[in-house]
Design goal:
The chain is α/β, with parallel strands linked by helices. About 40% of the residues lie in helices and about 25% in strands. Helix 6 packs across helix 7. It starts with a strand and ends with a strand.
């Protein structure tokens, strides 16, 4: 049974989320503060997805996200954001979140997002024929371990970032639309916004480009999408 950490300081909202996740077949771990969430993750290293509220009594959800990402690139992270706070969505993604859900949300929407993220972070998706390496100097992608190296140095990627890089490497030199990237990485049933692609690309460029402001590996195809620039 997949474990989900629910970090939410408002008890009634947390209970509502937990009840619905348990109905959907998830095991839940609860936390009301950032410190408590980090402690729970130490005790439960097998958590698949962390659901993080932003407004908390101690550190905010962005700081919790940063600290989780500093030690764990594989866990899925979803931020709970207020509908009016557009910058929260971008900030959450830039600090390492994989997705966001805006309040108020329906149980069905939240469960669908967690389901999709569990599928992506499950480490599956590779057939034995695929398992191996993709070499496009200076990059080496190991599809068995789902890791990336640049000039022999490991680049820490989230599972979503890995999926984007693999998609690019499999389609080197081909322009991919934002919608194609969204469908391939987040799934055709994803009903979020296409800008999640742009923010993840921005985050990836910071990690892999020599100069993120003048990218040479992931180039923009204006009005369309992106291209792996080989």
């Amino acid at each position: 049974m997949k474990k989900v950490l629910v970090l939410e300081d408002e008890t009634n909202i947390r209970s509502f989320v937990v009840i619905n996740l348990r109905r959907a077949g998830y095991q839940t771990i609860e936390a009301g503060t950032g410190e408590e969430a980090l402690e729970q993750l130490k005790k439960n290293p097998d958590v698949s997805v962390a659901l993080l509220d932003i407004m908390l009594p101690d550190m905010d959800g962005f700081e919790v996200c940063r600290r989780i990402r500093a030690g764990n690139s594989r866990i899925g992270i979803i931020m709970l954001t207020a509908r009016t706070q557009e910058m929260d969505k971008v900030t959450g993604l830039m600090t390492g979140a994989d997705d966001y859900v805006t309040k108020p949300f329906s149980p069905a929407e939240l469960t669908a997002r967690i389901d999709a993220l569990c599928r992506r972070t499950g480490g599956g998706g590779e057939t034995p024929a695929d398992a191996g390496e993709i070499s496009q100097p200076p990059f080496l992608l190991n599809t068995r371990n789902r890791t990336l190296e640049k000039n022999g140095q490991r680049v820490k990627l989230t599972q979503v970032e890995y999926s984007i890089i693999k998609l690019f490497m499999d389609n080197a030199g081909k322009a991919l639309s934002r919608e194609e990237i969204l469908d391939a990485v987040w799934g055709k049933d994803y009903f979020g916004e296409v800008k999640i692609v742009d923010v993840n690309i921005r985050r990836l460029r910071i990690k892999i480009e020599d100069d993120p402001t003048n990218p040479t590996y992931i180039t923009t195809v204006w009005g369309y999408g992106y291209k792996w620039g080989f």
